[in-house]
Specification:
Layout (H helix, E strand, L loop, with lengths): L2 H17 L5 H21 L4 H20 L5 H17 L1 H24 L3 H6 L1 H12 L12 H21 L6 H23 L3 H34 L6 H33 L7 H42 L1
């Protein structure tokens, strides 16, 4: 069957599925089975077409609707963390990759700029911070800045600042994604020059063991916030088969959910920075354990678990569809 005829035969049904907001769980399941049947056909005969991309998005939308209406122990809160948020990470995996690569690129640019321009670090970090750190290095305590404030006070202000940065990175996506890219550029250059400053002082490894105790979660969350902003901005720029405002509203809603999901990550990072990072002489194995644990959690929850969850849901759908046809 030609693609145009396939679309003509099913367009009305797909439009009804897309626009019907309320439905019983059984009706949602029937819709989901119907769409996945169409998606399987499209993937077989039109694997790289816009029709296949559209059906994949509609199937994902219906899948999330089923989980929202499914009763589980622990209620809506548990469902969000166990299913909805990881599936959003899977749905926007390209935006996550783009945000990461973009951030990494400007980290490297910041480091290179600091290497070849002696004034660059002061331009980015400020004279007061550089002078204070140089003084701390002379006094044998290069990371003394983390000890200057009361633990709880530091935790509070760092948490508020990081949450603000994440919401800013997301909200700036409304400027056609350019605003989000600007936030990623600024933070990437700052991190690159900051990290190079310590390497240039012969404190590179020490800075990794201290700063990245909290930085692993903090920087990862900023990248994810950037992906949330790109999800919103790109939904307006590239609505695919949806109406532009419909796509934009959905992208904004999904991006906001990702930002809300980051709040516990930022709180944990702020706790580590306020209460743990200040212990700059802790044994190396403790620092490495915290770093490895943080990196493993981000890798598992943002990449590995969403892919496994998506694959298991696809297999369950295929089994369900086969049983229904039998």
């Amino acid at each position: 069957m030609r693609e145009a005829l396939f679309v003509k035969q099913n367009a009305t049904k797909w439009e009804q599925f897309e626009n019907m907001r309320s439905a019983s769980p059984d009706e949602l399941a029937d819709r989901f089975i119907s769409i996945t049947d169409d998606l399987a056909y499209a993937k077989t005969f039109y694997p790289k077409s816009q029709t296949t991309a559209y059906l994949n998005g509609l199937a994902a939308k219906l899948h999330q609707s089923i989980y929202r209406n499914k009763r589980e122990k622990g209620g809506r809160f548990l469902t969000f963390w166990k299913h909805e948020l990881p599936l959003l990470f899977k749905q926007y995996e390209r935006q996550l990759l783009y945000a990461f690569l973009f951030f990494l690129t400007f980290c490297l640019m910041g480091a290179l700029s600091a290497r070849y321009d002696d004034t660059f670090v002061r331009l980015i970090l400020g004279d007061s911070y550089v002078n204070m750190t140089n003084e701390n290095i002379k006094n044998g305590d290069p990371f003394g800045v983390y000890k200057q404030t009361n633990s709880f006070e530091m935790f509070f202000f760092i948490a508020v600042n990081n949450i603000w940065v994440s919401f800013l990175a997301f909200a700036m996506g409304i400027i056609f994604s350019v605003g989000t890219l600007y936030v990623l550029i600024r933070n990437g250059i700052m991190l690159g020059s900051f990290q190079y400053f310590f390497f240039s002082q012969g404190l590179g490894w020490d800075s990794v063991l201290v700063i990245w105790i909290h930085g692993t979660l903090e920087i990862s969350a900023i990248v994810i916030a950037g992906a949330a902003g790109l999800a919103m901005g790109n939904s307006f720029l590239f609505p695919k088969t949806y109406k532009r405002m419909v796509a934009f509203k959905q992208g904004a809603k999904d991006g906001l959910k990702m930002i809300i999901g980051l709040i516990p990550v930022f709180l944990t990072a702020a706790f580590l920075e306020g209460f743990v990072t200040r212990h700059t002489t802790m044994p190396v194995w403790i620092s490495c354990s915290i770093l490895a644990g943080s990196l493993a959690f981000i890798s598992w929850y943002v990449v590995i678990y969403p892919n496994r969850l998506y694959q298991s849901s696809q297999l369950a759908t295929l089994r369900h569809g086969t049983e229904s046809r039998i």
